[in-house]
Amino acid sequence: MAQSRLEKIGTIFTRVSGLLRSGAMKPEDKPLWYDVYAAFPPKLEPRFDRPAPQIPIRNIFYEEDQVRAKFHKSQKQAEMVSMFDRQRKTQSQQFIQIYQGLKSQGALDEEKIFETALDLLQEQRAQMRQDAQQAKDMDLGLEEDSKQTLSESFTQAKADAGETKTSTATTSASGTTNPDSKSDSKNKIAGQNKNNKNC
């Protein structure tokens, strides 16, 4: 299907202006950017046939980028990173921090600094794993204690409930009267009522 090539004619501003002037576009359907463009026109119109500027693009490198690239090449597997965890530093961030600390001392050459930083990172990671395991074990121990305390509390509450039921049953048994005596008392009251009516 053939399509129009109107983007090659004029600019987007002149095309929208033409649509508004001819009535093909209502003023209420005017794009939001139209008034902004009219108030602050660009220095150079964004035309289709405008030549692209010949500006050399600089490569932006940070000081630690080469070290980071070397570190990632030396690692066999990439670490998984949680984007929600903003407090924990990644392996490469920890490595760069160690590397820059060693480099600031200036006692070793680049290769020795890199190897020493790798060794220190491995030790640091092992220590972190050990601390995490200890914390996990402590949490499991606390969970077991809380479960035991809950079960003891439940058993105690069950025993207390059994004692309460027994005492209630004995109290109600002693407080109940013989049904025959109830019917006798009703008959006496009915007889008294009859005597009162006869009088």
In short:
By secondary structure, this protein is mostly helical. It has six helices and no strands. Helix 4 (91-105) packs across helix 5 (110-175).
Structure, described:
With 199 residues, this protein is an all-alpha fold. It is 65% helix and 0% strand. The chain contains six helices and no strands. It has helices at 12-22, 33-39, 65-74, 91-105, 110-175, 179-198. Helix 4 crosses helix 5 (110-175). It starts with 11 loop residues before the first helix and ends with a helix. The model has no long low-confidence stretch (mean pLDDT 78).
Element layout with pairings:
Elements: H1 12-22, H2 33-39, H3 65-74, H4 91-105, H5 110-175, H6 179-198
The proportion of residues forming helix, as a percent range, comes to: 55-70%
Shape: flat
Runs with pLDDT <50, length 5+?
A: none
Q: What is the CA-based Rg, rounded?
A: 45 Å
Terminus-to-terminus distance:
118 Å
Query: Strand percentage, roughly?
Result: under 5%
Question: Biggest β-sheet, characterized?
Answer: none
Order of helices and strands: HHHHHH
Relevant terms:
199 residues; mainly alpha; 0% strand; flat
